[in-house]
Write a structure and sequence with these properties.
Shape: elongated
Number of helices: 1
Structural class: mainly alpha
Strand content: under 5%
Distance between the termini: 43 Å
Helix content: 10-25%
Number of strands: 0
Length: 59
Amino acid sequence: MDDFNRDSAYPDHPEPEWESAPPVGDSHLLIALFPDPAVQAAIEAHRKDWLWPEGHYFP
């Protein structure tokens, strides 16, 4: 294993099990986008036209 993934900072820790079992239950993938300020402004302008049921709001 190379030093990028594991270095001498943890000499007493055992090597991880790379062949571990898959996670139990639902898995989720989050993808984040970071638009430039002009695109952010366009999204905000569009969002202001959305209608929300009473008592609800944009998070």
